[in-house]
């Protein structure tokens, strides 16, 4: 539908840092200088020379000459170089092989690099060898690379201009490249447009001269309405990742070509309102509040990823009303919380923290008074979900008797005993650990009344959500000795960043372990979450699947193949599916696959159809009454 063949247009594409992610001579240096004692220093020099040449600071011929001198390269190094470059082809070129082969007659690779490595790389993606214009190495009798073919215009300044002039191409010329020498073709008047390619490097001097900036080949193809692998260039889709999510998540989005912004801390409501306007994918952890006010300004937002378990910080109802799918990571950090809880239970019942603090002050206080084993003691779990149940199993392995209370009827694991009421659990337990979710109605679930029901000298843990415990009541219970030790990881108010002071009445109390909401903060958990949540978000963006969403009708869709997928999100009112299908019938469109799932609030209809259909179909679908969001994928 969006394809257009530009019969008379030639695409002139640069190689280094455009077709590939890297500068090939830098890579050759890494290979040829392996084992050289000044390798790093020489490589740095080569990089500087490359950059100076690309940004037009020194002449091209000078840059080639200086680099070849430093390289000490040999013919035998070339196979390894080619192997490396094969893995370094720019992602958007890899994705758009179809464009490269379809337009092979009109695609020219013009580079001041060298044919010896360029030809094998570009021909592997369908470029014609006769359309590759580049330098060639000169070898000495022993196979050392000593120079380049001086007759070739591409080894001289303005060489690309000379070459294009000599080619006498009849038609429009669009140049795609990252370097100043690519822009020079446009400057000379020989090219109609110059696209500064920034997927791998950004050169301000080049960008300022460009007719258009292309963060990926998809953007170039989209701009020219050419056939492409992405219906909408991902470089135009902004991803905002807050609260220091694991770098693996950033990489996953970047390698798909998204425009990613990362911030270490959380943002407050007003700051987020400012940022959210042009954001399509938002990633947060537990601190960022995605309120209805924020969502009012989130006109482009398609999905939110909570890089944690809890989603109480997100206004899920408003997200659903606005057609924004929300995902979380329900299991990835549960083990980490369980291990911390077990560790704290033992530390608290042995009074280790006050003892350790005294030792640091030089006080040796050896005594068994008020120190106990956990074996045979009663552990009461409030909330028997993913964390509560795992803790139940591990605690039993330590010989503890487990009691639990959950508002939902849950299967007891091992020998754990179900309590009928919270009060019953509070009265029986030597240790109480909270593992409920953070729903609003759980606010102050544990307050003065509940502490009064607990055994004298109970050990109390909250690693779930801060608002579940009335802090003032906990402080009183500690001061009166009702609570002999407490482990608190979560607080009603938590600092937004590591630079903000932690202010709380629990500070300074004896035998109280305070931790900065790190129950789930282990390398393992964060890496797992960093893989899991982007996986869900990308499945939704790329394929429409909502499996695992916490607020959307869940569908696991087949991969899209040879068809276009139309995603229609609407308020769940009668008759929408009929209206959608009436439009397909009116336009004689054959449906290749259709899926419908609803929740109380919304309906989600996914329809796969053949590629040939008119724009009116899309317009009519978008305009059905009660439509919340419409998306097209191919
Ligand atoms: N400190 C940290 O870094 C972390 C904290 N968490 C928090 O831990 C909590 C538990 O997580 P999961 O076990 O994965 O959640 P989950 O959703 O699997 O389990 C929560 C359980 O609590 C029950 N529940 C809710 N309200 C209750 C109430 N008033 N009384 C009794 N039971 C109630 C639910 O029925 C459910 O079975 C959540 O609040 C989560 O946000 C999770 C991971 C890390
Ligand atoms: O690691 C975080 O930021 C939050 C962990 C948490 O509380 C959760 O997963 O619910």
TrEMBL record:
Its EC number is 1.1.1.399, 1.1.1.95. Signal peptide: none annotated. It is an enzyme of class 1 (oxidoreductase). GO terms for biological process: L-serine biosynthetic process. This is D-3-phosphoglycerate dehydrogenase. It comes from the Bacteria. Pfam families: 2-Hacid_dh, 2-Hacid_dh_C, ACT_AHAS_ss, HAD. The lineage of its organism: Bacteria, Pseudomonadati, Bacteroidota, Cytophagia, Cytophagales. Pathway: Amino-acid biosynthesis; L-serine biosynthesis; L-serine from 3-phospho-D-glycerate: step 1/3. It catalyses: (2R)-3-phosphoglycerate + NAD(+) = 3-phosphooxypyruvate + NADH + H(+); (R)-2-hydroxyglutarate + NAD(+) = 2-oxoglutarate + NADH + H(+). One of its GO terms (molecular function) is (S)-2-hydroxyglutarate dehydrogenase activity. NCBIfam families: HAD-SF-IB, PRK11790.1. Residues 565-634 form the ACT domain. Keywords: NAD, Oxidoreductase. Catalyzes the reversible oxidation of 3-phospho-D-glycerate to 3-phosphonooxypyruvate, the first step of the phosphorylated L-serine biosynthesis pathway. Also catalyzes the reversible oxidation of 2-hydroxyglutarate to 2-oxoglutarate. Belongs to the D-isomer specific 2-hydroxyacid dehydrogenase family. PROSITE patterns: ACT (PS51671), D_2_HYDROXYACID_DH_3 (PS00671).
């Amino acid at each position: 539908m969006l394809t257009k063949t530009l019969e008379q247009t030639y695409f002139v594409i640069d190689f280094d840092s455009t077709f590939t992610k890297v500068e090939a001579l830098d890579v050759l240096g890494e290979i040829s200088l392996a084992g050289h004692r000044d390798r790093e220093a020489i490589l740095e020099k080569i990089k500087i020379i490359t950059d100076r040449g690309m940004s037009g600071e020194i002449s091209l011929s000078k840059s080639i000459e200086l680099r070849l001198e430093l390289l000490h390269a040999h013919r035998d190094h070339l196979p390894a170089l080619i192997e490396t470059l094969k893995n370094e082809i720019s992602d958007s070129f890899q994705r758009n092989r179809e464009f490269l082969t379809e337009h092979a007659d009109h695609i020219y690779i013009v580079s001041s690099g060298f044919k010896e490595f360029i030809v094998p790389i570009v021909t592997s993606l369908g470029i014609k060898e006769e359309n590759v214009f580049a330098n060639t190495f000169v070898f000495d009798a022993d196979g050392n690379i000593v120079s380049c073919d001086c007759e070739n215009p591409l080894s001289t300044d303005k060489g690309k201009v000379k070459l294009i002039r000599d080619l006498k191409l009849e038609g429009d010329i669009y140049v795609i490249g990252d370097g100043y020498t690519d822009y020079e073709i446009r400057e000379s008047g020989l090219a109609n447009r110059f696209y500064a390619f920034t997927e791998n490097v950004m050169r301000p001097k080049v960008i300022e001269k460009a007719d258009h900036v292309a963060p990926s080949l998809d953007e170039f193809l989209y701009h020219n309405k050419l056939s492409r692998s992405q219906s909408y260039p991902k470089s135009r889709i902004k991803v905002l990742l807050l609260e220091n999510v694991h770098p693996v998540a950033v990489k996953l989005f970047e390698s798909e070509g998204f425009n990613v912004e990362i911030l270490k801390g959380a943002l407050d409501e007003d700051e987020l309102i400012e940022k959210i306007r042009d954001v399509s994918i938002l990633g947060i952890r537990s601190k960022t509040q995605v309120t209805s006010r924020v969502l009012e300004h989130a006109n482009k937002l398609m999905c939110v990823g909570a890089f944690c378990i809890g989603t109480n910080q997100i206004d899920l109802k408003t997200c659903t009303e606005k057609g924004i799918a929300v995902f979380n990571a329900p299991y990835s950090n549960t083990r980490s919380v369980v291990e911390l809880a077990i560790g704290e239970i033992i530390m608290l019942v042995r009074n280790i923290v006050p003892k350790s603090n005294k030792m640091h002050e030089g006080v040796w206080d050896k005594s068994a008074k008020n120190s106990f084993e956990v074996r045979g003691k009663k552990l009461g779990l409030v909330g028997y979900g993913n964390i509560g149940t795992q803790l139940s199993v591990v605690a039993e392995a330590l010989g503890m008797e487990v009691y639990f209370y959950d508002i939902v009827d849950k299967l007891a694991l091992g020998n754990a005993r179900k309590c009928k009421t919270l009060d019953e659990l509070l009265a029986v337990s030597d240790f109480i650990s909270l593992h409920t979710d953070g729903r609003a109605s759980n606010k102050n679930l544990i307050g003065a009344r509940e502490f009064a029901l607990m055994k004298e000298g109970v050990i109390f843990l909250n690693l779930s959500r801060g608002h579940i415990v009335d802090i003032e009541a906990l402080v009183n219970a500690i001061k009166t000795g009702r609570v002999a030790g407490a482990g608190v990881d979560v607080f009603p108010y938590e600092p937004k960043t590591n630079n903000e002071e932690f202010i709380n009445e629990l500070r300074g109390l004896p035998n109280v372990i305070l931790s900065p909401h790190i129950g789930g903060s282990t390398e393992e958990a964060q890496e797992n979450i960093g893989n899991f949540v982007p996986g869900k978000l990308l499945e939704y963006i790329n394929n429409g699947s909502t499996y695992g969403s916490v607020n959307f009708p869940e569908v696991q869709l087949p991969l899209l193949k040879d068809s276009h997928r139309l995603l229609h999100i609407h308020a769940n009112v009668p008759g929408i599916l009929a209206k959608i299908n009436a439009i397909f019938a009116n336009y004689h469109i054959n449906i290749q696959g259709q899926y419908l799932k609803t929740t109380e609030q919304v309906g989600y209809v996914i329809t796969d159809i053949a590629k040939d259909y008119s724009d009116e179909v899309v317009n009519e679908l978008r305009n059905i009454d009660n439509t919340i969001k419409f998306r097209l994928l191919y």
